[in-house]
Amino acid sequence: MKKINIASVVFITVLSISCNNSKSTNAGTEKKENETSLKGNKAPADYFTGNVWVNPLAYDSLAYWTIAKVTFEPGAHSNWHTHPGKQVLVITEGTGYLKENGKPIQLLRKGDVVIIQPGVKHWHGATPQNGFVQIVMNPDIKNGVVNWLERVTDEEYKSGK
Question: How far is it, in rounded angstroms, from Cα 21 to Cα 108?
């Protein structure tokens, strides 16, 4: 895990806030629908345990980068996976875990920014008690975005306690 400088954090935070702004409404059901649509699309159960949503925020196929907001309900997490390029996580809400193969599990909190190096086997997601939201940036997708691997075992997930 590598921390990045404060200027990058400020830029990413402003981006995150601007992407999360929405008009409020007095109608409860309409507001609920808007909140759900802001979460994005339900993530595939083949690659995630629990309820996870992915909301693509930006993509540039010519410059080879992508940004998405990923929302995890308590206890939800990804499978083990790698990325051909770096991955940057900006934690915007809640508490979560990041586990890189061969390293202790890391607790992530709102405001944390981490860089995962290319080819590093890892998983990330919410803690059992708290939801977790992250902005995920993949700055080099020339060779693809993600290589999905096996599911995280209950023992691996619970090692964060």
Answer: 24
Domain range summary for the chain, segments of one domain joined by + = 6-158
Give the length of the chain: 161
| Average pLDDT of the segment spanning 13-30 | 37
- How do 52-60 and 122-126 pair as beta strands? unpaired
Of 155, 86, 156, nearest in space to 120 by CA:
86
| CATH top-level class of 6-158 | mainly beta
Percent residues over pLDDT 70 in the chain = 76
Cα–Cα distance list, 47 to 32, 122, 124, 129, 150 (Å): 26, 13, 12, 21, 8
pTM (predicted TM-score): 0.76
